[in-house]
Amino acid sequence: MAVKRKTEAGAPAFTGAQLLTFDRYRERRDLLGVLLDKDQRYTFSEVDALIDNFMKGKVN
Question: Distance between CA atoms of 17 and 22, rounded to whole angstroms?
Fold first, then answer.
């Protein structure tokens, strides 16, 4: 059974390991493998914000 919890806003939260299996993030699995801690829980909005912040980062 999927391990998830409800946050204050009622949004489900999933572990980083679970998020890597979702079709929603199929194209970003390599990036999420680096950004996410496999045991920490994230909501979809948190993951989307992490991706956006990374993609907007400056290249040195």
Answer: 10
